[in-house]
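haha ok so turns out i had the wrong file open the whole time. this is the CORRECT one, sorry everyone. sequence first:
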Amino acid sequence: MAEYELTFVIQPSVDEDQLASLRERVTDYITGAGGELIGTLDWGRRRLAYPIRKHTAGFYTTMRLRLPPDAIEDLQRMLRLNEDVLRYLVLSAEDVPAPPSG
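then structure:
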């Protein structure tokens, strides 16, 4: 399994239940595909650098995960088809420095 970092932005009009449901759906997919969630960082509502689909803010979430490489395409497809997700980015952990230990 390879290690990845997933960051996604959810449109600001969703309520807390929908937000939690989407995050849970992503987590369920990761564990269902034989992966492991290492950590999650919820950034909360942040202003976007530029408007996306007429939205100027969004809820940011970053997840560090281990997942088989063939499951990444399905994860990206799930995020792409969800209308509440404005943007997402999956990076190999080799390209991302480790988070600071606290």
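The mean pLDDT is 90.
again sry for the mixup
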